[in-house]
Design a protein that fits this description.
alpha/beta, 2 domains, Rossmann fold, elongated
């Protein structure tokens, strides 16, 4: 997934975003599954960070499938870029006006989106965060997500075991300031590896926005600062592949251990090929399917879902490390996305 890029979009961009991306998956006023009038169907909104990230593409597919299964109408929207908080606010407002019973959202800015969410909840709309929690988490009715701290901790424990006592020179290729999912993965990795923030073994930290090109640039910058880096933590697999490209250009790709999070098909294949040593796989399809069902149940008089639901995470590697539970890439490829 994954991940995760946080600048506020300008008003003009958010207005354009709302006009072009708020759509019903049934089309032409039809229910997603039965062709019934939309007035009879439960309306569910899905707002992702972007339309292009494979993680969110798979999440949308899961929501569409569940909407058809439960006879709901799905309205979807996505930011113009990962971090388009203004666009997400506009999408929330438009969906509330359209009469949705619930909104599923992957918040681009976990703090700045809270007032818009509170306004929607005050209007009687169930709001469920997917993948990324808000700050505070209680700003939404519920959270269906990977335990991102655990995801980071798993690859941290793996990296520590794989180093087998060799002194580490660590680079962290992170997300962006103020984004909960990025901070949770980063903090989890440090705990798993057994080091604290500011430890001298962390020789370089750079933000990548979860982007492959930025990941490559970040790795190049880190190699200039500390040429002897031997462990690279990355926020997601695009950043990991960017790091690999930079390391290969220096002839060091076989000397450096790269670990990551997401478990997309491209990333899992990179584990299989040895470009990435291990990744923590998460499951966006399950998040979306569970979210749609929760909204439909709420709309039909069922109990309102609340609290945190862990949608699972699995360490994927073909080079297992002693004491760290993992599955191989055959399992990873059977369960990947994108």
């Amino acid at each position: 997934m994954s991940p995760r890029l946080r600048t506020i979009g300008v008003l003009a961009a958010s207005v354009a975003f709302a006009a072009t991306t708020l759509t019903g998956c049934g089309g032409s006023g039809e229910s997603a599954s039965t062709g019934a009038s939309t007035s009879a169907a439960v309306k569910v909104g899905l707002i992702t960070k972007t339309e292009t990230n494979p993680f969110f593409v798979k999440m949308k597919e899961g929501a569409e499938s569940a909407a058809k299964q439960y006879g709901a109408e799905l309205l979807t929207a996505a930011g113009k870029f990962d971090g388009d908080n203004a666009g997400q606010i506009t999408a929330i407002e438009n969906m509330v006006a359209a009469g949705v019973k619930g909104i599923l959202i992957t918040p681009s800015d976990s703090k700045a989106i809270v007032p818009a969410i509170q306004k929607a909840r005050s209007a009687g709309v169930l709001v469920i965060a997917l993948d990324s929690p808000t700050e505070p988490q209680e700003a939404t009715d519920a959270l269906f997500a990977t335990d991102n701290f655990k995801a980071g901790e798993l690859i941290g424990r793996y990296a520590k075991a794989a180093m087998a006592g060799k002194p580490a020179k660590i680079a962290t290729l992170d997300l962006a300031p103020g984004v909960a999912v990025g901070q949770l993965r980063h903090d989890g990795f440090l705990k798993g590896f057994g080091v604290a923030e500011g430890d001298p073994s962390i020789v370089c930290s750079q933000d990548t926005g979860g982007d492959q090109a930025k990941g490559q640039t970040a790795m190049e910058n880190c190699l200039q600062k500390a040429p002897d880096i031997n462990v690279v933590y990355t926020i997601n697999e695009p950043a990991a592949l960017g790091a690999y490209t930079a390391l290969k250009a220096k002839g060091r790709e076989k000397e450096v251990l790269i670990v990551s999070v997401d478990g997309g098909c491209t990333g899992t294949k990179a584990v299989q090929s040895g470009q990435i040593a291990a990744t923590s796989q998460q499951y966006p399809l399950k998040m979306a399917e569970s979210g749609v069902k929760a909204v439909v149940d709420y709309a039909k008089g069922g109990a309102k879902t609340s609290g945190y639901t862990d949608t699972g995470v699995t360490l994927i590697t073909d080079k297992p490390a002693t004491g760290v539970e993992a599955k191989d890439t055959a399992f990873g490829l059977a369960n990947c996305w994108g």
